[in-house]
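Box 4.2: Ligand-aware structure prediction
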Amino acid sequence: MRYCSSCAAPLRLERPPGDDRERHVCTRCGHIHYVNPKVVVGALCTWEDRLLLCRRAIEPRAGFWTIPAGYLELGETAEQGAEREAWEEARARIRIDGLIAVYSVPRIDQVQLLYRACLLARDVAPGPESLEVELVEWSAIPWDRLAFPTVRWLLERARELRGRDDPLVTVFNPPGSGTGPDLGGA
Ligand SMILES: [Zn+2]
């Protein structure tokens, strides 16, 4: 970030009074431009005993499999964002049942909220960001072709939770995973 989005003057890095770290501060209007992590929302969507996976058409990790997920937009709730991503990437209409996981990925400045959802209809189709979408049996998950570590974490966790009814199960980064898996923008 180099220029102020309010007045277009150059920014400089300085520590505002009372703050504990440097910020981008406008040299003309004094506006402090805070930079904070982004929220990614997504859903593990199931139909009977199958789960919805999408093969990515875009970088990063084009050609690899993921769940529908992406950045939360302004003005929507996290659940609405997850529903929107399911539609955009897989033309899937879903009902969100609860949260499965909250993952923090500080190396790329993301917090991910990942839900469990049911497909409202079996028909799904690739959206513009997907090469193909598939309803995959649990035994046929392409573990070695998943796009991101958090997708693997989520699928491993969801497999553990199969058959359990509790709708709200929040977990954290798996032990030993560190804080910096290489996860792209989804
Ligand atoms: Zn300014």
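In the box above, the bound molecule is zinc ion. The chain is about 15% helix and 35% strand.
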